[in-house]
Amino acid sequence: xxxxxxxxxxxxxxxxxxxxxxxxxxxxxxxxxxxxxxxxxxxxxxxxxxxxxxxxxxxxxxxxxxxxxxxxxxxxxxxxxxxxxxxxxxxxxxxxxxxxxxxxxxxxxxxxxxxxxxxxxxxxxxxxxxxxxxxxxxxxxxxxxxxxxxxxxxxxxxxxxxxxxxxxxxxxxxxxxxxxxxxxxxxxxxxxxxxxxxxxxxxxxxxxxxxxxxx
Amino acid sequence: xxxxxxxxxxxxxxxxxxxxxxxxxxxxxxxxxxxxxxxxxxxxxxxxxxxxxxxxxxxxxxxxxxxxxxxxxxxxxxxxxxxxxxxxxxxxxxxxxxxxxxxxxxxxxxxxxxxxxxxxxxxxxxxxxxxxxxxxxxxxxxxxxxxxxxxxxxxxxxxxxxxxxxxxxxxxxxxxxxxxxxxxxxxxxxxxxxxxxxxxxxxxxxxxxxxxxxx
Lengths: 215, 215
Known about the structure:
The structure is a homodimer. By secondary structure, the first copy, chain A, is of the alpha/beta class. Chain A is 24% helix and 41% strand. Chain A has a 6-stranded mixed β-barrel with strand order 1-13-10-12-11-14. In chain A, strands 2-5-4-8-9-6 form a 6-stranded mixed beta barrel. Chain A starts with a helix and ends with a strand.
């Protein structure tokens, strides 16, 4: 093999490898509409003593499901009816809304990672049996990528690392400040909310790509 | 002056120049909510024979104003009431909604530059005197920067050129595909819609920065 041929062969192999590794970084998108996670105590206040959440449909993440149960959100300026409850029950009730919902409801929900609820916004939930007024628990969830331990290791990413993500199309953009959430058995998926989906024209059949690691 | 001092002086001058030119590229943001531009013919159908638009409040762009007149938008799946009319009248009626509004109304409005209405979506407008059903004219307006001829020349940008724009903050991102619209006497302003404002947490007091010219 001549030097020229050798160089051509190596170049081709490197290009193929780069294309493959970029291809591997394609991430399916999941769009989150407003929803509520409830504690067992709040399930019973809203739906009755000893009530349990009923699985209506499995979600893509393992053990997570959409419930048949729905609630009404009430803020100082408005109401949103028929808001989905997601199961299973959690230790603390968490209400996830979009910034647009917050304006409609009159609820100033801060942008947070899921579970980070200290001093977040107050809201009232109404169910068929009773109501619950939360002192805190209402947030706009920061966009994030669920990634299992194996993918994170192979891609050289760590839990809570911030990455940038390329969105293609007529409303193409680069999301900075995307949080990577690594856990053992989750499904690879980038979660954005309705405002972000509308602003990018991304949907549940879309893909995005990580383009940088730590900024 | 020693070589070392000379290099330090030149370096400082170059850094100052770069900082200044970047500083110059700060652009105020204007958030567009859903609104309607009407032809005189449609003004009369909706508000009565010989009706004229009434200036309620000037907009930041010269000669543009919010009207006292409001209309109801009706689509196949929903209704949005009290939608602002903007003046002055135009040759052709144009309805600007967000992607989120389109879902609520059941109107599949394409992403377009203002004025590009061929084969865009149908909608019905209802006013106090009558209604108008448009065969086309409903769009989601592509984000864009209004820039006067002098600024465009100084920044080396051309009409309809696409640039990228940096948005800072907790929902920081880079908008690609931002259209520059150059005209003689407009006010420098980047226009985004409500979905884009919610997805970035930008408001009317925010600033963004052009970071690249042609992609």
